[in-house]
Specification:
The complex is a heterodimer.
Chain A: H1 3-27, H2 31-56, H3 60-86
Chain B: H1 3-27, H2 31-51, H3 55-79
Helix pairs in contact in B: 1-2, 2-3
Chain lengths: 99, 87
């Protein structure tokens, strides 16, 4: 197997694991599950984009992965701020229990 | 595996992901879940532009899809309600 073949298999396996996180996004019962699935899928896909840039040997393709990694962080931050404001996914403490 | 085979395998996976995430974005009743599914749709669409050798379009799609629309939809939902209301 050549080096390019190894990179191609790595790319396909990364996208396959992104599909597995898509299953969690469909099935996840709570909203924090889905937010974490989105974040994990974005990170995996950014890695796949870098490997695709290596396979095609074009340095421009690395920039897309950089931009997506920075912007997905902002999207996750907004979702997390919403969840904190609405107190979604925070367990209610029983009465009388401190901190 | 040569590059041609890799291209078609990637196209098949991207098409499957686009279909699944679009249907999820339509069918979810909780609006936050729908916004998250739409962010995933935008991510996979950006990957499709990227595979079709258009990295500048992919950067624009990433900026609009991940940054702008998610933030604006969440701001709108924060000021109204997050469950779908059928009148």
């Amino acid at each position: 197997m050549t080096v390019d073949g190894a990179f191609m298999w790595a790319l396909i396996l990364l996208l396959f694991s992104a599909m597995l996180t898509l299953i969690r996004l469909l099935a996840g019962p709570t909203i924090p599950d889905r937010a974490v699935a989105l974040d994990s899928m974005t990170t995996t896909t950014a890695g796949a984009m870098v490997i695709y840039g290596v396979v095609t040997r074009q340095a421009v393709f690395i920039d897309v992965a950089l931009v997506y990694a920075v912007l997905s962080y902002i999207a996750t931050l907004y979702i997390a701020r919403y969840l904190v404001k609405k107190r979604i996914g925070i367990a209610e403490r029983p009465e009388g229990e401190t901190s | 595996m040569n590059f041609e085979e890799l291209f078609w395998v990637l196209q098949a996976m991207v098409a499957l992901g686009l279909l699944v995430s679009a249907i999820a974005a339509i069918r979810f009743k909780n609006l936050i879940s729908a916004v998250i599914a739409m962010a995933v749709f935008s991510l996979i669409l950006s990957l499709e532009f990227y595979i079709l050798q258009a990295p500048d379009v992919a950067i624009a799609e990433a900026g609009v899809g991940a940054g702008l629309t998610t933030a604006m939809y969440l701001l709108a939902i924060k000021n109204t309600t997050d469950e779908e209301v059928v009148e």
